[in-house]
Amino acid sequence: MATPCVSHVPDAPTDIDHDDTVTTLQCHPTENILASGLISGDIVLSSFDASGSNQELRKFPHHKKACRALRFSENGRRLYSVSKDKSLLCFDVETGKLKKRIRNAHESSIYSMVVTGANFVATGDDDGVLKVWDMRTKEATVEMKECEDFISDMVVDDNKKIIIAASGEGTLTAFNIRRKRMELQSELFDSEMLCLATMKQGQKLICGTGEGTLNFFNWGEWGNISDRFPCGEAQINCIMPVTEYVAAIGTDDGFIRAVHILPNRVLGVVGQHMEDFPVEAMSKTADGTCIATCSHDQHVKFWNIEELKRQKVDTSKKGSKKGKKLMKFSKAKKDDFFSGLVETGEKDADKSDSDSDDSDDDSD
């Protein structure tokens, strides 16, 4: 049994508490504002700061079932949301006005979303259907079904041309949304593909899986993995790059862990939600100093990652064969907070390759 740990480090905002389970979240790209999606379908916009003066700004009660994904537009003026009720919504962040609503955007519940342009978003559903939406016309400009199970997560390249989608069936699929075709699909893996992140200046795509392994793909080479890194036995639900070589992962056992890639090491434990409650989502604050996470404990927690950015791995040493140790938390001074981080290898650790939408439509 893991030792309980405190929920904060110095200079991290205090918890944002909700009256229902938080299923997803997203930080605003330029302001200290966080959007929380609840299992009830409500979306709550909150402000936060390190002084603890968090404040609820707005609540959007428009979804009828659980909110599953939230994304701000690149300029932060719009907030997009999708839900188990199959709808896609767009809100004006400043006024709180519902700008667009697309009811029954998919035939099955929507699971994931990514912003692909100033007026475009892509959505993936429980049945493996991907759609790209022009939010000005509320029409799907692309619709493809190449996956047999839910589309768990998506990323898009800098040119907004290629979407990479992870699926619960255990595949990774590259879609060319300009040419409206599938480019390539990976071989079928034994475990669900659940979350995605790009690292190493976009050269690597990192995929978290249901078996607790990180799969690495070279960008553009989607047929098979270039490397894999077992991080433990707990399912990896979300991943957030901290630097080009360090990422935070949220797992099914309630922990947020820090990992270093290439060389691959589990550095330590950043934080923990209530034991045995999965970490469902994470997002980096606008200033890059903290990550926000949510679980089934009705709290959004913040973790300061400044010390983590300075962690180094001694490439001349192999990872320990004894497995990772949990980091002990304390309200110690900031410089001591990550002192418990350890370089720890796993079985395969050393196999690494050494918006603007100007429409005023309030349509329901």
What keywords describe this structure?
four-stranded antiparallel β-sheet, mainly beta, 364 residues, disordered C terminus, Methylamine Dehydrogenase, Chain H
What percent strand?
35-45%
The name of the CATH architecture is: 7 Propeller
* Low-confidence sequence ranges: 1-9, 320-364
CATH topology: Methylamine Dehydrogenase, Chain H
Helix fraction bin: under 10%
Describe it for me?
The protein has no helices and 28 strands. The N terminus and C terminus are likely disordered. β26 and β27 form a beta hairpin. The strands form 7 sheets. It has a 4-stranded antiparallel beta sheet with strand order 1-28-27-26, with no helix packed on it. A 4-stranded antiparallel beta sheet has the order 2-3-4-5, with no helix packed on it. Strands 6-7-8-9 form a 4-stranded antiparallel beta sheet, with no helix packed on it. By secondary structure, the protein is mostly beta strands. InterPro entries: WD40/YVTN_repeat-like_dom_sf, WD40_repeat_CS, WD40_repeat_dom_sf, WD40_rpt, WDR55/POC1. Pfam families: WDR55. Belongs to the WD repeat WDR55 family.
Describe the protein's topology.
Blueprint: E1 16-17, E2 22-27, E3 33-38, E4 43-47, E5 55-60, E6 67-72, E7 78-83, E8 88-92, E9 98-102, E10 110-117, E11 120-125, E12 129-134, E13 139-145, E14 151-156, E15 162-167, E16 172-176, E17 181-185, E18 193-199, E19 204-209, E20 213-218, E21 227-230, E22 236-241, E23 246-251, E24 255-260, E25 265-272, E26 281-284, E27 290-294, E28 299-304
Antiparallel strand pairs: 1-28, 2-3, 3-4, 4-5, 6-7, 7-8, 8-9, 10-11, 11-12, 12-13, 14-15, 15-16, 16-17, 18-19, 19-20, 20-21, 22-23, 23-24, 24-25, 26-27, 27-28
